[in-house]
């Protein structure tokens, strides 16, 4: 008896349906630098006019936030998360996002679900002004549980060599400015899922599932406007490990980032009673607590910087300063 690929669990037709459902939306992200159509073996992208271009790349996924999407049956936001996690990282070095590629894997492909996920990726790319120039959808029966997916992405940006931001210009007396998060973003969900066990419970006018699936904020437009007008000495994307683990990554030896916790505008999510079961150190060392991104710059530029950020839709405010010290970060 003959056996087919479909008999083994792989439905190529469902993959073709996915492409048909997303191809026009994907094209909406293309810039004039994209040189190929969806479906090429490789993606072609013209770099454009730069004097000493440096490519900046980053890759990431969405983590167990996907479990919330599976249980809630809501798939249109996790693609935004995937883009945000990659794009916000390369943004920290002053890079202008150029393009993005995604990888979607599942046990059994459902074109309705996969196209919803990719629509989120498209939205994330539009917010980032990056072209979605390629990707891969892998159907792997027996590898993933029915109804479960994984998604990861890869972003590339460019910055002139003399405009790279890497923290080396940070100095004593600089101030630290916070940009508010939209919630937990895509970090700490293994713990969050243990605290919020009923995703259908009503919370803040939504179900818990819908509320937790609020997508990660993308800071491209506001940060680019800032770096066009002000010298920024350091930037940090506040992901897993919170302020403690992410800001210290850019602090030079001999300096300390002093963060004043009472100045931080805690996101309402982290004030929920469920978090009373988590000690304070764990909270600050796991979650962004309401700060999704930080910039460090000269004190004389602080007011203008916050004005620019606010004009571009951010909630921006000072949370600390740089001093001399052996410890690279101090929360007090």
From TrEMBL:
Please state the pathway this protein functions in, per its UniProt record. Answer: Purine metabolism; IMP biosynthesis via de novo pathway; 5-amino-1-(5-phospho-D-ribosyl)imidazole from N(2)-formyl-N(1)-(5-phospho-D-ribosyl)glycinamide: step 2/2
Q: Which InterPro entries match?
A: PurM-like_C_dom, PurM-like_C_sf, PurM-like_N, PurM-like_N_sf, PurM_cligase
Query: Which PANTHER family does this one have?
Result: TRIFUNCTIONAL PURINE BIOSYNTHETIC PROTEIN ADENOSINE-3 (PTHR10520:SF12), TRIFUNCTIONAL PURINE BIOSYNTHETIC PROTEIN ADENOSINE-3-RELATED (PTHR10520)
Q: Which gene encodes it?
A: purM
EC class of this enzyme? Answer: ligase
User: Domain of life, per the record?
Assistant: Bacteria
HAMAP family according to UniProt: AIRS
Q: Which GO terms describe its molecular function?
A: ATP binding; phosphoribosylamine-glycine ligase activity; phosphoribosylformylglycinamidine cyclo-ligase activity
Designated name of the protein = Phosphoribosylformylglycinamidine cyclo-ligase
Gene Ontology cellular component annotations, sorted alphabetically: cytosol
Report which reactions are catalysed by this protein.
2-formamido-N(1)-(5-O-phospho-beta-D-ribosyl)acetamidine + ATP = 5-amino-1-(5-phospho-beta-D-ribosyl)imidazole + ADP + phosphate + H(+)
């Amino acid at each position: 008896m003959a056996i087919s690929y479909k008999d083994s669990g792989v439905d190529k037709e469902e993959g073709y349906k996915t492409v048909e459902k997303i191809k026009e939306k994907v094209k909406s992200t293309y810039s004039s630098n994209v040189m190929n159509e969806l479906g090429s073996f490789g993606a072609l992208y013209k770099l454009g006019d730069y004097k000493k271009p440096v490519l900046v790349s980053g890759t990431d996924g969405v983590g167990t936030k996907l479990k919330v999407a599976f249980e809630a049956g809501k798939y249109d936001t996790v693609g935004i998360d995937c883009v945000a996690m990659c794009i916000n990282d390369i943004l920290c070095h002053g890079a202008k996002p150029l393009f993005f590629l995604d990888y979607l894997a599942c046990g059994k492909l459902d074109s309705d679900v996969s196209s919803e996920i990719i629509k989120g990726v498209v939205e994330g790319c539009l917010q980032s002004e990056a072209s979605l120039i390629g990707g891969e959808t892998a159907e792997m029966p027996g590898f993933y549980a029915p109804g479960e997916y994984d998604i990861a992405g890869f972003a590339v940006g460019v910055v002139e060599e003399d405009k790279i931001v890497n923290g080396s210009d940070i100095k004593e007396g600089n101030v630290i400015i916070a940009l508010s998060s939209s919630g937990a973003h895509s970090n700490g969900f293994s713990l969050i899922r243990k605290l919020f066990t009923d995703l259908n419970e009503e919370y803040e006018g939504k179900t818990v599932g819908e509320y937790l699936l609020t997508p990660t904020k993308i800071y491209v437009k506001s940060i680019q406007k800032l770096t066009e007008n002000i010298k920024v000495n350091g930037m940090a994307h506040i992901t897993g490990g919170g302020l403690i683990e992410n800001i210290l990554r850019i602090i030079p030896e001999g300096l300390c980032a002093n963060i004043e916790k009472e100045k931080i505008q805690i996101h309402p999510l982290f004030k929920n009673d469920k978090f009373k079961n988590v000690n304070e150190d764990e909270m600050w060392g796991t979650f962004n607590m309401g700060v999704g991104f930080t910039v460090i710059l000269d004190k004389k530029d602080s007011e203008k910087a916050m004005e620019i950020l606010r004009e571009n839709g951010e909630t921006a405010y000072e949370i600390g300063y740089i001093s001399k010290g052996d410890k690279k970060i101090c929360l007090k």
